[in-house]
Write a structure and sequence with these properties.
Layout (H helix, E strand, L loop, with lengths): L13 E3 L5 E7 L2 E8 L2 H14 L15 H7 L8 H30 L1 H38 L34
Antiparallel strand pairs: 1-2, 2-3
GO biological process, one term: ethylene-activated signaling pathway
InterPro entries: AP2/ERF_dom, AP2/ERF_dom_sf, DNA-bd_dom_sf, ERF_plant
Subcellular location: Nucleus
Amino acid sequence: MAPRRRSNTGFIGVRLRPAGHFAAEITAGGTRVWLGTFYTKEAAARAYDVAAWRFGRPRHEMNFPEVRSLTEAQSLSTEPLLRSQGEARRYRSGQRRIDTTESDEQFMAQWRRDHPGDVAATRAFWKEKQTYRRERRAGKRQRKAEVEAEYAKGEASTWGEDDERWSWNLTTTASEDTPSEDEDFDF
């Protein structure tokens, strides 16, 4: 997701702290990751770019898109200014989260390469499940349409009061109770 706007510092993910230093943070997977406090906004922006590279963000979401690799971004970045044990703890915690995310992605990529049969079986399973759900929704919609058409007939209806087909009208067809038809499973 593209950042909405650059902050008043002119850099993505960088903001001015009350003490005159600059804070850097990035959001990944709905979680805000604290990257540290820096003396200059450029140093904070470079730390943001290192994290953006690690999370696989596109270059247009980085402060310095001319940097060509994670290694180059890391070499240009400086260590954050850690003023207290709390800030140091938050920084280490953020680094651990980034490292965990990277190792998980690497593990899954390796697993996909080593077990192509499992990947194919998983994809086939979800494709079959998606087809089943699609057919089930279509059946529910058809039964509901039949009930609504019979109900519209009013007194002329050929169904008795105890006919079980009337209960079909209570069957939910809401799209929020099942995944969308466009849902794609990426394994």
